[in-house]
Every structure is written in C-alpha cells, then in structure tokens.
Amino acid sequence: MSAEDVSDWIALNMIPGVGGATYRRLLNFFGSPGAALRASLRDLNRIRGLTPAVCQSIVDQRDKVSIDREMEMIQQRGCKIITIHDESYPPNLKAIYDPPQVLYVRGDLLPADSMAVSIVGTRSASPYGKMVAEQLSGHLAAKGITVISGMAYGIDTAAHKGCLNAGGRTIAVLGNGLSVVYPARNMKLMEEAIQSGALISEFPMGMRPLRNNFPRRNRVISGLSLGTMVVEAPKRSGALITADFALEQGREVFAVPGQIFSEMSGGTHDLIKQGAKLVESVEDIIEELPSYALQPVTEEEFKVEEERMEIQLSTDEKAVWKFIGSSQIHIDDISRQAKLPSYKVSAALVMLELKGLVQQSAGKMFMKKVSMLQSS
What percentage of the chain exceeds 90 in pLDDT? Predict the structure, then answer.
C-alpha cells in the first residue's frame, strides 16, 4: 500500500461521524477510502444507512483534516498503521461485527497474539482484586497466552504488570490517541508494554480520553480476545460493558468471585449468576478456550482441505469458500472480496452450512466449522 493510500485510510478515519460501520459502507460502495474522500454529496447520499448529517460531515470536514500533522506525529511516535485489509490485522478483531477499519500500533502484533485473554475490572480495585489480577495474568503468560487490558488504574494495571513480570506479552487498548499519555502515572508501564507487546488505538493521534471513547475501546479489548475475565467490578462498571461485548461477539466470559459484602463483587457475582464461568485458577480459563485456537490450523492445511472439498462445490460456493477461514468474516466482506452480489453470497453460505463446512454466528459473521478445523 502506497503512502498516499495509507494517508487516505487515516484521513477518512479522522472525520467526525465516520465510525466502523460507516467506514465499511463507504468502502463497499466506493471501493477505497480515497474514492470516498473525493465523492460528491449526491453520491454519498446514495449509500443506504448513511444519514444526511454524516454525508454532510464528510464533505465539510475532509479538507479540514490535518493529515500532514497526523502523519508527522505517527512518525515521531514510531507508530504503525494497520488497516483492515492488511494481512497483519488481528484475526480475532476482524471477526467482530464492527471492527475498527484503522489501527494505530506502537510495538508489535504477532500471530501468536490471536491466543489472547482480556482481564478487566474496576479502577478502584481492592488489594484482593489487584493480587488476583496480577497472579492470574502471570499464570496466563506462563501458558503462552497474551494478556489484553485497557491500561486503566486498578485491575487493568495489575493485569499488565502481572503479565510483564512473568515475561509474557501484553496488549493495551487505549481510549485516546497514542500521542496522549493517559493515565499519566502509567507512562513507564506503557513503555514496558511496547517492548513486550503493543499499545493499540483506533483514535487519531491527538485524541483526548473522552468518556464516549471508552465503550468503543472496550469492544476492541473483547474483540482481540478469545475470552474476557472480569476480576472485580461493581454492578455499574465499564468492565461489565466489556463482558457484554464479549457475549455479543461469541467469546467466553469469565468472572472471579469476591467477598459477598463488598460492593466491588456485585458485578462479578451477577455475571456468575448469568452463566459466566467462575474462575478459581488459570485452568478454569484454559479449559474453555477453543481447541482450534490453541492448536492453529496452518495455511497449508487449509489449502489441502480446500482442494479436497472444492470438487463438491458450485462455482459460487467455491468463490465464497475461498474467503472463509478459521477467523470470522462478515458477509459484506465476503461479498466484496469474492466480487459477488450479496444475494449470491447468501445462497452460497446457506449451502455451505448445509454441507457442514461453515458456521454462522451473530451479526452475519461466518467461519469454517470448528469440527472441520479440528479434523483437518
């Protein structure tokens, strides 16, 4: 991808009102961020699902975006830009219904990071909560599992520290731009995370930590993970929002029990009552992780399986099957990549499900069937 193409991806991401769903609609309609940025108001209003206000914002704001300053800050901070079309885009995150189209990254993302668990909880953590988060994080790191959290005070900080102290990899997802150090007291911890993992944000470099940013941040935390563990949280807590996202994304939810008279146990105990897996040790987490994630199927194995199955597929089914893998993909992305109209993709997916090759989850997300992956 050329520097001009990258700047177009970033510029479109900087326009107010252009979230993940709007960005995806623009890409599906125009084919590229550059074409969307140059589009007329009349063409923008032709896109189903875009409000007139969003269309007007794109026209009004596209020439006001300080892309040169943004690129300068990206270079100064040593950031990488990963778009949803890049091979290095995290597969777990790509599988959610509303993945960020652009990620800012300081540090490195590795294929092994797909085997990840997030640990979240209250900022006002008790000594018990911090101890549990740190110990369980260290135990997960010792198993080779990447620990993901949000770099907030309290449980998040304890989770990152426990992982790093055990020599593991940790990823911090921020609710602000990567040129902003927040919370300030965690500056050293952030630098350590960059060396042994990464900082990630979907927000432009100078974005302040606004309240509305954090629910968006939380969906990325759960989206990067195979499961989310809530260590300590009251009944009204942002950590519970992360757990809700995990459920919507079809991921595991874990909860650590606490003292029955503590306000900080209210949210976690409610999760357990609602069916979250009660965690007493790291083994309680490990046994719930999908076996195909713990033993990834290689691209070579996929190709062998594809060659074996393609003789039983129609032309449209073959075209769709080519873009379905071990990570979930949205039906709109299949349609775009396979260059087929949505009605043909839908019909092909129905047949692939009937043939036991594909499974569907919430939000029209599809992946190769788990049983097939395990037998490959």
Answer: 67
Assigned fold of 93-289: Rossmann fold (3.40.50)
Domain 294-375: which CATH number of 1.10.10.60, 3.40.50.150, 1.10.10.10, 3.40.109.10? 1.10.10.10
Show the CA angle centred on residue 297, arms to residues 83 and 254, nearest 5°.
Answer: 75
Distance CA 354, CA 66 (A): 50
Instruction: State residue 307's pLDDT score.
Output: 59
At 336 the pLDDT is 85
| Segment holding 277, helix H or strand E | strand 277-278
φ, ψ for residue 20, nearest 5 deg: -60, -45
Contact predicate 44/50, CB 8 Å: yes
Nearest to 215 by CA among 185, 248, 188: 248
Written as six digits, the tokens of 190 are 């952030």
Count of CB atoms situated within 10 Å of the CB of 100: 25
Q: Say if CB 362 and CB 97 are below 8 A apart.
A: yes
| pLDDT tens-digit series, residues 277-294 | 999 999 999 988 865 444
Q: What is the value of pTM for the model shown?
A: 0.78
